[in-house]
Amino acid sequence: MERQETAILIATVVLIILVVLIITLFWVFQRRKNSLLLQQKEAEKKFERAIAETQIEIREETLRNISWELHDNIGQLLTLAKIQVDVAKEDPERLPEVTETITKSLTELRALSKLINPDAIKSLSLTEAIALEVERFNRLQFIEATLSSNTEVRTLDDKAEIIIFRILQEFFSNTIKHSKASKLSVNVRYDQEKLVIHAKDDGVGFDKKDLKSRQNIGIGLCNMQNRGKLINAEVSLDSAKGKGTSITLTYHYKKLVTEEEVD
Length: 263
Prior knowledge:
With 263 residues, the protein is α+β, with helices and mostly antiparallel strands. Helices cover 65% and strands 14% of the residues. It contains seven helices and five strands; from the N terminus they run ααααβαββαββα. It has helices spanning 2-90, 95-116, 118-122, 126-139, 158-178, 215-230, 259-262, and strands spanning 144-149, 183-190, 194-201, 233-239, 245-252. Helix 1 runs antiparallel to helix 2 (95-116) and helix 4 (126-139) packs parallel to helix 5 (158-178). The radius of gyration is 30 Å and the shape is elongated. The two termini are 58 Å apart. Mean pLDDT is 82; it is low at 256-263. This is histidine kinase. Its EC number is 2.7.13.3.
């Protein structure tokens, strides 16, 4: 009888321990799950904030470009046209010069309208947006820029396009402001698994060993790489003194879920 009671007691204790263990494990699991969900939500919020900040930066860069073009490009053309009109009053044979200048001003305004119209910008693919930048550099004679690209094999996520475009915009801006380059080449290659963009200038370049001392370049590279991490893109900068600077961006497409995988 005592043995039976002892066995029952032991079984009860074991059962209680198992119940407590299961409850504990369930509690730990739920806590970890909640923690992971919280981390995921925080990561999503951080990503959305980064996207919003990037959109603002692109908009600000666009407005700076518009302001510059209106003041220093189109403004100068219209001032020249006014002078030519005054001259043509005394010499009517100079009227064709006025017509040519006004025609050029209209061409510049049409090109500028592409930057102003938000619907037009939204409808552009990544390659088309890059082409617009290259066209602007050449039109304003900032630098001799060329773009080569193959046919797109995958439509990119809108947010990935925004990040990639801003990274390239930063590189272009540094090239024009600091590199003293005369030429810029951009190659956009869509492979089956990834997108690879390579851009290179023929500027003064820099020694990568001095990267830490070149604060503006170091910060710029960190910014571009941090943006790349948001979409799991790899960003590398290569340079040498007297041999220019290049950037390579590699973005692996997000895996598409097929019907077979769902089943």
